[in-house]
Amino acid sequence: MDTSPDLLVRVTGRASLEAYARSSYRALRLVLAYAVLTGCALGMALPFLWLLSTSLKVEGTEFVFPPQWLPQPVRWQNYPDALHVVPYLAYARNTLVITVAATTGTLVTASLAAFGFARVRFPGRNLLFILLLSTLMLPDAVTLVPKYILFSRLHWINTYLPLTVPAWFGGGAFNVFLLRQFFMTVPYDLDEAARIDGAGNFRIYWSVLLPLSKPALSAVAIFSIQYNWNDFLNPLIYLNQQQYFTLALGLQFFQSEYGTQWTLMMAAAVMMILPMVVLFFAAQRFFIQGIQLTGLAGR
User: Fold this and answer.
1) Is 212 within the bounds of a domain?
2) Domain region containing 27
3) What is the rounded end-to-end Cα distance, in angstroms, of the chain?
4) CB neighbours of 130 closer than 8 A, spacing ≥ 6?
5) What is the pTM assigned to this prediction?
C-alpha cells in the first residue's frame, strides 16, 4: 500500500473539499429554506400590517396609492373614537360572557366524552366513535335551519342560550377526537393503579388524566376561545337586539348608507383581535405540545 506523503496530501485534500462542499450545500439549503419561510410569513402578515396601518391613518388617506404603510401623521385618536361610535365595551362584555360559557362547556363535556371513548370499554365503542367522527363531514349550512327551528320553539332566540348551551353537550366532534387521542397516550397502568386504590372512573378522569392533559386541554381551549370570540354567523342568526350584540356584529355599525368609517373600523378590529394574538403567544408552548402529543396514540 502506497503511503507516500504526496498520496496522503491528495487524499486529505480531497476529503476536506468534499466535507466543505457538503457543509456549503447544507448551509445553502438552510438559507433558501429560511428565505422562503420569511417570504411566506411576510405574505401572511401583510393583511394584518395593512389593518394596523389603516387604524392609525387620518380619514380620507386609507386608499391612497401607492399605499402609505407608515401613516403621516399617526392618529392615535382613532382608538378612543372607535370606542364611542358604538358601545364597544358592552359588545366586548357580551362576547366575553359567551366565550367563557361556551369554552367551559366545551372543556368539561369534550373531556368527559373523550375519556369514555379512550378509557372505558363498552360494546360498540369504536362504532360510536366512528359515527361521531362522521359528523365532521356534515356541512354547518345543513343544520342551520333545523337548529333555528329548535331554538325558536324553545324560545331561545335573542338570548345567549343558542350560543352557549350546545357546547355543554359534547363540546364538538373535533375536540373530542383531539382529547381522546391524547388520553390514549397515557399508560393504562395508571388507571389500574388507581383502581387498586379504590378509584372509580370519574376519580381516574379527575385525578389522573386531567392533571396530565394540560397541553391538550390548552389546545382545545384556544380553539374554542378563538371560534367563539370571532364567530359572526351564529350571533347574526340568533341575536336581534343591539344590547346583546357581540364584537363581530358590532363592527358592521361603522358602515352606513353614507359611507364607511374605515379608520375607526380598523381600529376597532385591531382591538378585537389583539386579545386573541396575546392569548396565542402566551399559550403557544402548550398549544404546540398538545397538537404534537395527540398524534402519538397508537392504540
Assistant:
1) yes
2) 1-54
3) 58
4) none
5) 0.81
CA dist., res. 224 & res. 71, Å (int): 35
Total length of the chain: 299
What are the E-state strand segments in the chain?
255-256, 259-260
Backbone angles phi, psi at 260, to 5 degrees: -120, 130
pLDDT digits (tens, 9 = 90+) for 224-247: 999 999 999 999 999 988 889 999
Number of domains in the chain: 2
Specify the DSSP class assigned to residue 58. P
Among 155, 186, 161, which residue's Cα sits nearest to residue 296? 186
Q: Are residues 7 and 102 in the same domain?
A: no
Task: Record the cell numbers describing residue 43, joined without a space.
Answer: 405574505
Model pLDDT for residues 162-209, shown as the tens digit of each residue: 999 999 998 889 999 999 988 988 888 888 888 888 888 889 999 889
Answer yes or no: is 63 within a domain. Answer: no
Question: Are residues 217 and 148 part of one domain?
Answer: yes
Residue 65 covered by a domain: no
Domain membership flag for residue 210 = yes
